[in-house]
Write a structure and sequence with these properties.
CBS_dom (chains A, B), CBS-domain, homodimer, elongated, about 800 residues, membrane (chains A, B), Chloride channel protein (chains A, B), chloride (chains A, B)
């Protein structure tokens, strides 16, 4: 079996988390099969149902690793629908409005801490990287110049390899063996989480530690990766940690903030954490909010957004304050983000440059599509052949070696010398240059990629020679592509910006010769446009990327050029393939719900989409039956129904829907031996018994029920959700999709017109229908659903 | 009867637009009354239902004008739910994916034009105001100096009054007699529209013209009002006009963009228009997007937001381009918005200033709450006593006179002189000052309020004398309060900013004496904080206001001070009353849905909230019956049901729900004589017959049906929405609220557990339950619903 290591490398104990698609033991299904029901059978005349039946058969086929059109059954959904059971009503009645005010205060406090702690971690990462890189590159620069004289250039080369491999080795061992979900930038994982998919362990403290240490290792190791993407993941994990008042990693429960222990509340905090992460990374509080909304929120809520914005502003302020203090500029607040492009005030543009920006964007889109396509092939290769942790570590070390080699060869072969003085680098390295000169390429390689991007934006014209830029673009393009997806913790923002800035600067040289108004051709401006185009071509983000770049450049008037560039990049790239994050999400088979239902799908009905038959429970149900049902099926939600009735002239084979109960609720009930209760004793049970177990409920195998207990019965009515949203079997796919997406549902029972449950629609049933756009064509495809991915 | 003129001054021909609350003719109700139904009767034991019944009785009471807790029955909802009928499916099948691509292209084009045309109108308004004000104030300045020498200062005073009254008279006649919905800033109206309430005539071309001309008149007339708020309304109207390809005002139909003729599509464009308006007004494209989202969108959609952002960026670019050209700075792009606070780069702040900002915010919140409370009392006075158009015109002229008088008295009495040279004004007026000096107050009064705000922000310290600022704050505070709500077209952003900037600058003088680090006390910085605090105290906007101010000051690093100030202002203000827009919305009884359902309302059930009995139709219905039903009821949506059946042992008195059909659809069917059709002839009918009439369908009285035709029957099935969202009668209020709000519904049929319709919930039924927060207390109130408001 092939394993997708892109999102969830080890899926231990996820085996019984499979969702509704698995066939369940027919003994425990107390509803009839489809064939007996005249409600549905009329629909079979519909040809599209037949095609759907055919596609269900296809699911039995084996799935090739690396396929983009298969959904995995192993991901669970988060549930954003409030369970309005008796316990909630009881709690509401007891707590009153004072509790609401306290809850609001708690929320603001938590968001404050999310902002502050995210920023402090960012500072720690930044200071560590800065210190270690100074040591490393200072040492290397000295060594190169010493050994050049002796003609023993292989010595610093070996040192360089060593300095790259050691941190990369540490970082990749951490990721490959200790916490595989900390690999990469973490943005796809956070995106999936905010979309409503539970990615195991994605916001745990262990992941946070692996991520933070890992990112220092890989940046110090000189990999073509940045620390900005991981900051978003760090922020998300911080938020989840603080808001829950408990930690599974440390096995401690502070018993505070228990009322935030539900998916909906946690998601809100995680949105804030992601925004605070962006804000700390780029000094872009508004961009952070927009990122969080663009990637996550489906339902815009004014007060939530205001709180997210607060966390973002606190984050950038804290970072600024601490870093300014550290760099000896106390109170000057010069460091709004980890990555700061510097102030671009001097630039202006004219109307007739807009087509040029669009061309740059289109070029970036082309390059981005190529990058994505290579990276996709690489990811498939990794899935097939590089599954073992030690192989992953080896690959990371190989990339670290290749990075040093590429840098060394460029410095050695391209003797690009510039006079000292207008020196933009900390460690001017002479190599083979004459006295009073320094090697430009060495200065690019002997600093962090962030500093290189800044140089390319702000260096005066003619600092860089055309050949150096050209080879640099090619080398860095492939290096960054090879690096993304390694078992190390690093992002792709900075390497993409660097590649783009380099080719933007390169193309500006060409423009200088053909363009009428030479005053406007500032290479730094075109480096910025190139950087935006390249990054836009890779990730295909829209409004948030524009605003992030506007904020990092501290230039609002550059909005139109950026929007034109990013639009052209997105449209060009989308012609060939999806954004890189989406490719990785698809590779891992996550049932991701897009913003809108697929177009022209009003002729697909609930009866074709739903899973059936379903396993349902009675209002008062036998404990042994429940335990067996939980063991034998992998469903996560069970309709609670009246028993089917037998009338004189009407035979119902399905029961009327009375409520919906979750697997996790049933397990908590059985675990706490809450059965044979009368309505008098309900008042002793409160919602906290469910919250104490959140979010990792015990599995059914952990239940210890005696044979006596199995004969008891449990009244499910006080715990179930008594009025779940339902739709008729004749509802169309877009109708279900909008309901599901807008309200963040996990289960949508499908009823017939006697209000009897005949099927269930979950996230996977809807995510299966996906729009594809390719080379100007458009359509809807039906994905396969498989356990094998 | 008292009439609310704040939102909809004349409600001609709205008489039969009343919604479900009106009692309908019992002859045409084919469902039984509540008493007969055992489904519901069990609920009556519930004490909260009894209290709800009691409150329904209260509705018969007469409502006092100016009450804030009454909803009017006269507003209709917009419908954002797609009607998935046969015609839609048929159209989808015929058009295919090429049509989807064409539709997307059309959308981008429309958003481009929305941005451009909004900006061009803004330029036109700006240039007109600029030209006329230069003439006016140049003339006045000369006259004052001439007549001071002769000792006949009453002459320029009379001229001043004249110059104020003439434009204000024109503007207020236009608004009071020609198009009353153009009064005020238009923001509350746009806010209601985006929330899903149909405000009659709010986005018509006639309104656009009245607004544009009116705003020029009132600003030239010297009223304490700005042109920025109206720009948002202008943008919204432009968007509605362009996207529909037809104009009711001009009675022309271009027959383009017909597929955008539905509430949902139109709302999307109007969001874009509002954003483009903000963007043009403040040069704040990101702020515009956030404004549009904060005030309108309930469901965040990535691609829509991206288009809105595009329109905003195009708008600020076009404005910048045209104004730069007009002011002779071609290509320099110095005018990103109508209102530009200038660049604030020089400011920095320290951590220990944050509490000071919070205090400023709290003070602004106090002043804002006072302002709102006075303006509310004034609005009630206007509703009671100033209903006649001529009285409204008189009041506007009185305010114009008072404005001139106040200015004149201040110039005359406070002889605040400064030496020329550091002169920040165009028309230095000497009055009683010595030679080489000018009167500071005359320079404030003899320019537009925008220019005065800029002076207060950027004038060097000690330009303004404490007494002048003090009197100016008092005078302008009351003048702006009196002006808002007049029958003229102007906004409150600029006067609030001006008041706030003046007291901010005033307080900074005090701070200068008590504060340790005097270098930080730049009066301009505190003027900015004061301006933000005052505006925030009035309108209580959050993220969008912060971003708008960040963008107009072109300073991203000032985010934290602004957020602290605005948060303090909002919290302080909310302690006393609501934001001014909300007060005006409540005054007019608009059923506005807030972001979240009221807290602790899970014990209110659908069966108490719904309207019943309901009027329903059969699948194939008699034409005469439909016509009569439309005449006798004022419902806008009718459930289509199976006839009730009589079984051996089960008597159903309600019919099973088969679909939902709208009044407008029925009228179009009857008007086009679409009856007695067989399924063969359906293919001749397409969805365009409904679109051609959108959005102003004929009334039922316009139908001309012969007696013969009344005996025909019409098959409603191809036109009705066959699977409307429904909930059970046991669903809670929050559950219905979330469904309704997230999906933008207009009608929510309530069914029993046999799927029979027993009631209907509309916007008013949900908006009736409102949270109140007052002086730290919190609760839920049930509003009255009345026809009399």
């Amino acid at each position: 079996m092939d394993d997708i290591q892109v999102l969830v490398p080890n899926d231990d104990n996820d085996a019984d988390d499979e969702d509704e698609e698995t066939t369940s033991n027919p003994d425990f299904i107390n509803t009839a099969l489809i064939q007996g029901n005249e409600e549905i059978i009329t629909e079979v005349e519909n040809p599209s149902l037949l095609s759907s039946l055919r596609s269900r058969l296809n699911k039995k086929l084996t799935v090739n690793a690396g396929s983009l059109n298969v959904l995995s059954t192993k991901y669970e959904s988060l549930d954003y629908d409030t369970c309005e059971n008796y316990l909630l009503l009881d709690e509401e009645r007891k707590k009153g409005y004072k509790f609401i005010v306290r809850k609001i205060t708690a929320k603001w406090t938590i968001f404050l801490f999310i902002g502050m702690i995210t920023a402090l971690i960012a500072c720690l990462i930044d200071i560590s990287i800065d210190t270690l890189c100074q040591l490393k590159y200072g040492f290397l620069s000295d060594y190169v110049d010493n050994y050049v004289i002796r003609g023993q250039l292989y010595v610093p080369y070996l040192y360089w390899i060593g300095f790259n491999i050691i941190p990369v080795f540490i970082g990749s061992v951490l990721v490959a063996y200790w916490e595989p979900v900390a690999a990469g930038s973490g943005i796809p994982q956070v995106k999936c989480y905010l979309n409503g998919v539970k990615i195991p362990r994605v916001v745990r403290i262990k992941t946070l530690i692996a991520k933070a240490v890992g990112v220092v290792c890989s940046v110090v190791g000189g990999l073509a990766g940045g620390k900005e993407g991981p900051m978003i993941h760090v922020g998300a994990a911080v938020a989840a940690g603080i808001s829950q008042g408990k930690s599974t990693t440390f096995k401690s429960d502070l018993h505070i903030f228990r009322y935030f222990r539900e998916d909906q509340e946690k998601r809100d905090f995680v949105s804030g954490g992601a925004a605070a992460g962006v804000s700390a990374a780029f000094g872009a509080p508004v961009g952070g909010v927009l990122f969080s909304l663009e990637e996550g929120a489906s339902f815009w809520n004014q007060s939530l957004t205001w709180r997210i914005f607060f966390a973002s502003v606190v984050s950038t302020f804290t970072l600024n304050f601490v870093l300014s203090m550290y760099y000896g500029e106390f109170g000057n607040l010069l460091f709004p983000g980890l990555f700061n492009l510097g102030h671009f005030e001097e630039f202006s543009y004219s109307l007739y440059e807009l087509p040029v920006f669009a061309l740059f964007g289109a070029f970036g889109g082309l390059l981005g599509a190529l990058w994505n396509s290579i990276n996709y092939k690489l990811a498939v290769f990794r899935i097939r052949y590089l599954q073992k942790p030690w192989l992953k570590v080896m690959e990371a070390c190989l990339v670290a070696t290749m990075t040093a080699t590429a840098g060394f060869l460029m410095i050695y072969l391209l003797n690009d010398c510039k006079p000292l003085g207008q020196d933009p680098t900390k460690f001017p390295t002479q190599v083979y240059c004459g006295d009073g000169q320094y090697n430009v390429l060495a200065s690019i390689w002997f600093q962090t990629p962030e500093a290189s991007v800044r140089s390319l934006f702000h260096d005066p014209p003619n600092t860089h020679n055309v050949a150096s830029l050209f080879y640099f673009v090619i080398v860095y393009f492939f290096l960054s592509c090879w690096t993304f997806g390694l078992s190390t913790s690093n992002g792709l923002f900075i390497p993409s910006l660097l590649t783009g800035a380099a080719w933007g600067r390169l193309l500006s040289v060409g423009l200088f010769y053909i363009y009428p108004n030479k005053a406007l051709i500032h290479p730094g401006k075109y480096a910025l446009i190139g950087a935006a185009a390249q990054l836009g071509g890779l990730v295909r983000m829209t409004i948030s990327l524009t605003v992030i770049i506007m904020e990092t450049t501290d230039n609002i008037s550059f909005g139109l050029p950026l929007i034109v560039t990013l639009m052209a990049a997105k449209w060009t790239g989308d012609y060939f393939n999806d954004g890189i994050y989406d490719i990785h999400i698809q590779l891992s088979g996550v049932p991701f719900l897009s913003w809108d239902p697929p177009p022209l799908s009003h002729n697909i009905y609930a009866s074709e989409v739903m899973s059936h038959p379903i396993a349902s429970l009675k209002n008062v149900e036998n404990v042994g039956y429940i335990a067996q049902l939980l063991k034998d099926t992998s469903y996560n939600g069970f309709p609670v129904v009246d028993p089917p009735i037998l009338n004189n002239d009407e035979v119902t084979i399905y029961g009327k829907l009375r409520g919906l109960i979750l697997r996790s609720q049933l397990i908590v009930l059985l675990q706490n031996k809450i059965f044979n209760e009368t309505s008098d004793s309900w008042s002793n049970i409160n919602a906290n018994i469910f919250r104490d177990e959140y979010p990792r409920y015990p599995t059914v195998d952990k239940l210890d029920l005696s044979e006596m207990e199995k004969t008891y019965s449990v009244d499910l009515r006080p715990y179930m959700n008594p009025s779940p949203y339902t739709v008729l079997h004749s509802a169309s796919l877009p109708r279900m999709f909008r309901l599901f997406r807008a309200l963040g549902l996990r289960h949508l029972p499908i009823v017939n017109d006697r209000n009897e449950v005949i099927g269930m629609v979950t996230r996977k049933d809807l995510a299966r229908y996906r729009v594809w756009r390719h080379r100007g064509q458009m359509g809807v495809e039906e994905l396969l659903v498989s356990k094998e991915i």
